[in-house]
Amino acid sequence: MLIGYKLFAEGYSPQEMVRQAERAEEVGFDFVEISDHYHPWLRSHGHSGFAWSILAAIAARTRRIGLATGVTCPFIRYHPAVIAQAAATTALLSDGRFVLGVGAGEQLNEHVVGKPWPSVGERHEMLRESLQIIRLLWRGGNRSFEGRHLRLVDAQVYDLPETPPEIAVAISGTSSARVAAELGDGVFATQPDPGPVRAYREAGGSGPCYAEVPLSWAADEETALESAHRMFRFGVTGWKVQAELPDVVNFEAATAFVRTEDMRSAFGYGPDPERHVAAVQEFADAGFDRLALVNAGPDPDGFFDFYAAELSGRLRAIAPAG
């Protein structure tokens, strides 16, 4: 079991993200993960720095901790050739500590370049072609590719690491699980649901399984719940909503009736370590073995201290029930 820390780039400045990554290394986290978004989820978040610049700064300021995107969409807003180059460079700058997390994207971030928003099935086809292009470029040399949705013409990534980064593919069902088993090295998810992990294993996938565990630490329960509601109420809308809404104002409307009480069942919260351990156990029971802790609490440094004192040893010892 590896334990990571999710850098909430929508809630903090780029400089603060780098500082938090340094603290995560200090208190013993195995990796940090950062979303690659253009917009925040809610207006109150107020930030959304460029993930690849933040990763480069973290690579320069840390020595041990792993780095990962959680996740980037390698088409529409980007071309997969750009992601192949960015990931290779990040792997070099971090001395091989980087994992490329990829997914089929959210309209919130991809619509900004003015292209139509494809259906789920089409996005999965585009994700497959993107991974084929990335793998092709990582083999070195001058490469071209002609797919149904994407093209590559006479491209070469000149600076390549000796060992390519691992690719973790975000999955939600059978279709994406097959893509992950064929072209990825692992999977990524946000719910403690064993179904996608099972589908990935049945499709022949044998790599690590990443997931984000929602927690909210504060010195009292009400403060923790209020902070979780303020920062992460968008999360209870479900992935189908999160992928399809086009703008921050839509998420404000979609979450207008989410109550603070609704966060109780979705988060490990408050000062009691047992509640946090129980939340992590759910994901371990579902088959995940790379767990990124998301802190929706108001005090990042308090959470780091809490992790070091109360959670680190216990979480590393967690195993699936039975």
How would you describe the overall organization of this protein?
The chain has about 325 residues and is of the alpha/beta class. The chain has one domain (about 1-315): Luciferase-like domain (TIM Barrel, Alpha-Beta Barrel). About 40% of the residues lie in helices and about 15% in strands. It has twelve helices and eleven strands. The chain has helices spanning about 15-25, 50-60, 80-95, 105-110, 120-140, 175-185, 195-200, 220-230, 240-245, 250-255, 275-285, 300-315; strands at about 1-5, 30-35, 65-70, 100, 145, 150-155, 165-170, 185-190, 210-215, 270, 290-295. The strands form two sheets. It has an eight-stranded parallel β-barrel, surrounded by eight helices. Strands 5-6 form a two-stranded antiparallel sheet. Strand 7 (about 165-170), helix 6 and strand 8 (about 185-190) form a beta-alpha-beta unit. The radius of gyration is 19 Å and the shape is globular. Keywords: Oxidoreductase. It comes from Streptomonospora salina. GO terms for molecular function: oxidoreductase activity, acting on paired donors, with incorporation or reduction of molecular oxygen. It holds the Pfam family Bac_luciferase. This is G6PDH family F420-dependent oxidoreductase.
